[in-house]
Amino acid sequence: MNRERLMKILLAPVITEKSTRIADAHRQYAFRVARDATKPEIKRAVETMFEVEVDSVRVVNVHGKRKRFGRTPGRRPDWKKAYVRLREGHEIDFMGQD
């Protein structure tokens, strides 16, 4: 895996109440990832970008919601979410301390 590919795997962190709760309790962080990303690629990308050790990766395919635009039915795109569990003693700080 080349470095350029690894930089395109992680699209954004998912920061919600649920993801904050699991980060505090279980050292798990949620990321929005590329649709074609694999578990080994996600693991290498997180370890490279945040300089942490990853214990495990779980992947969820999130289906887009059906929506209506006036009379026209539509659909939001599907996307992929990864839950990354870090090894003991490692942490990712998204807020950034000043």
Automatic annotation (TrEMBL):
SUPFAM superfamilies associated with the record: Ribosomal proteins S24e, L23 and L15e
InterPro entries: Nucleotide-bd_a/b_plait_sf, Ribosomal_uL23-like, Ribosomal_uL23/eL15/eS24_sf
Entry's transmembrane regions: none
Claim: rRNA-binding is one of the keywords in the record: yes
GO biological process per UniProt: translation
Keyword flag Ribonucleoprotein: yes
Swiss-Prot/TrEMBL keywords: Ribonucleoprotein, Ribosomal protein, RNA-binding, rRNA-binding
Assigned GO CC terms: ribonucleoprotein complex; ribosome
One GO MF term attached to the UniProt entry: structural constituent of ribosome
Gene3D superfamilies from the UniProt entry: 3.30.70.330
Recorded family membership: Belongs to the universal ribosomal protein uL23 family.
Reported function: One of the early assembly proteins it binds 23S rRNA. One of the proteins that surrounds the polypeptide exit tunnel on the outside of the ribosome. Forms the main docking site for trigger factor binding to the ribosome.
NCBIfam families: PRK05738.1-3, PRK05738.2-4, PRK05738.3-2
Subunit structure: Part of the 50S ribosomal subunit. Contacts protein L29, and trigger factor when it is bound to the ribosome.
Listed name of the protein: Large ribosomal subunit protein uL23
Organism: Inmirania thermothiophila
Gene name linked to the record: rplW
